[in-house]
Amino acid sequence: MPNQHKIPQATAKRLPLYYRFLNNLHLQGKSRVSSKELSDAIKVDSATIRRDFSYFGALGKKGYGYNVEYLLGFFRKTLDQDENTPVALIGVGNLGTAFLNYNFTKNNNTRIEMAFDADMGKVGHMIGNVPVYHIDELEERMTDIKAAILTVPVSEAQQITDRLVETGVNGILNFTPARITVPEDVRVHHIDLAVELQSLVYFMKHYPLDQE
Amino acid sequence: MPNQHKIPQATAKRLPLYYRFLNNLHLQGKSRVSSKELSDAIKVDSATIRRDFSYFGALGKKGYGYNVEYLLGFFRKTLDQDENTPVALIGVGNLGTAFLNYNFTKNNNTRIEMAFDADMGKVGHMIGNVPVYHIDELEERMTDIKAAILTVPVSEAQQITDRLVETGVNGILNFTPARITVPEDVRVHHIDLAVELQSLVYFMKHYPLDQE
DNA sequence: GATAAGTTGTGAATATATTCACGACAATTG
DNA sequence: CAATTGTCGTGAATATATTCACAACTTATC
Ligand SMILES: NC(=O)c1ccc[n+]([C@@H]2O[C@H](COP(=O)([O-])OP(=O)(O)OC[C@H]3O[C@@H](n4cnc5c(N)ncnc54)[C@H](O)[C@@H]3O)[C@@H](O)[C@H]2O)c1
Ligand SMILES: NC(=O)c1ccc[n+]([C@@H]2O[C@H](COP(=O)([O-])OP(=O)(O)OC[C@H]3O[C@@H](n4cnc5c(N)ncnc54)[C@H](O)[C@@H]3O)[C@@H](O)[C@H]2O)c1
User: Fold this and answer.
1) S-S: A164 plus which of A2, A169, A181, B193, CB 3.0-4.6 Å?
2) Is B151:B91 a contact under the CB 8 Å cutoff?
3) Is the pLDDT at B211 greater than 50, yes or no?
4) Residue A200, CA atoms < 13 Å, CB-side half-sphere
5) Whose CB is within 7 A of strand C?
6) Whole-prediction pTM value?
7) Which residue has the closest alpha carbon to D6 C1'?
């Protein structure tokens, strides 16, 4: 079932965005939408949107646009919105706590099921309805979880990563500045907030004017 | 001085990463580094690293590698590490508080100077050494700040953006799911955490095995 | 039912980014 | 000082992504 390996990465990264926006349209009772309208709302060129959709076949109708409900149903299946993906969070500090309180509950198929920390002051509490366990219990509790959010101090990142991989995790959303090393069947997405901020500032200074 | 518009965007986004890693090497007392070593550490192909550096001229020596101190000095200038860029943060909630406590203090040229919120319970306090003002004071206090981090509820995003633009801000790091509309001389970087998590899950399921 | 307006899907063109592969030179070693 | 090893810088090849531009079709209008 998986591996329609012909969807370009750039397209795949936009899919959740499309899904969320279509969901909003649906809630607003809209039944029809054009690539032009989508483009204005999510700031992606309309030709890019049509191209993205076309990888999945002909989802629209010429001269009409796209049927919101149909498209939404299609993306729901494509993005596996029906099967839930449990996620664990490691490191209940500033960032970790923010994520637990938020917990991606709006229209998502992902939910943080449990969190781990080394600090006894945090262990045993519920934060945002998620239980916080001691990091020593990682191996015994992570038996069914394949995805993790990493928000520990950078010094701990590689060591915790190794333990996560050992438990069978194969996707990590890494917020630490460490470029962690993993086996090649584990997927890591880095979100490096300090780099994002610095890069914004660099672009502001060196690429004036034109939106790109 | 600015607008050496020949540095590719993909390269520009990696510069802060290079800078941070070179800084670490320097602190460790290393004086020499090769593109291969850099590659192993930050997981960017060594040819890409050499290509990136080459846009700035010949910074290395054949058969030798790069001199850490020289390269670091070069990037310090390129990334304007000496002039400080003040930043404001709008919305002192879960995420906003995490950022204030962290405040990008490690080796950076960026610092959050002030924060704003609409909630009187938050106004008047210092969080992570940053004063929190009422959002009504935005216009009078933002006279010298050109960059903002946006962590308000999605419903407020566009309205606050308009006010920020009005005060002269030309760079926004937007954490809300809203794709905000700005004049074309304002740069917006979206960091959409829900999309990042969903896209990680999508990749895990549909692009098994190979690291790419 | 003819005309006008709107929209898709996609071939082709273009733009951007990565990677290969190698000549040229530096440093080290015996 | 010759041989070996390591490394850069970059032309060329390849890969990936975006954008243009238009035939084909739908819908709405009169
Ligand atoms: N907070 C931010 O705004 C921000 C911005 C950029 C990057 N980061 C990065 O995100 C990561 C987390 O940042 P933070 O501000 O939340 O840090 P933090 O210090 O507030 O939180 C780290 C948490 O990890 C826990 N911890 C430490 N060692 C552990 C271990 N071995 N096992 C399990 N838990 C452990 C600590 O008890 C703490 O609760 C850091 O790597 C930081 O560099 C944070
Ligand atoms: N926390 C997360 O993990 C997370 C994840 C993904 C996206 N986001 C997005 O980031 C944004 C912030 O999330 P959060 O969890 O920190 O929300 P939050 O509700 O905890 O914080 C929002 C803050 O904005 C303040 N605020 C409301 N209206 C304002 C106004 N008009 N002017 C100034 N301040 C105002 C509120 O008082 C509050 O302190 C949201 O848009 C959310 O969708 C958050």
Assistant:
1) A169
2) yes
3) no
4) 25
5) A 34-36, 46-47, 50-51, 53-54, 58-66; B 8-11, 45, 47-48, 50-51, 61-64
6) 0.94
7) B63
CA of A91 to the centre of ligand 1 (A): 6
N-terminal to C-terminal alpha carbon distance within chain B: 36
- At A5 the pLDDT is 58
The alpha-carbon gap from B70 to the nearest alpha carbon of chain A, in Å, equals: 20
Q: Per mean pLDDT, which range of A19-28, B105-114, B136-145, B175-184 is the poorest?
A: B105-114
* Token duo for residue A123: 């262990």
List the one residue out of B177, B203, B191, B202 whose CA is nearest residue A75: B202
Residues 6+ apart with CB under 8 A from B160: B90, B91, B135, B150, B152
- Dist CA A29 CA B169 (whole Å): 36
Q: Which residues contact B103 (CB under 8 A, 6 or more apart)?
A: B111, B112, B128, B129, B130
* For range B67-88, the mean pLDDT: 93
Instruction: Tell whether ligand 1 has an atom less than 6 A from the beta carbon of residue B201.
Output: no
Domains and CATH numbers, chain A: 4-78 (1.10.10.10), 85-195 (3.40.50.720)
Confidence band for B60, pLDDT divided at 50, 70 and 90 = very high
Q: Are strands B171-174 and B147-150 parallel, antiparallel or unpaired?
A: parallel
Distances (CA, A) of B83 to A85, A203, B105: 45, 15, 15
Q: Is the CB of B102 under 6 A from ligand 1?
A: yes
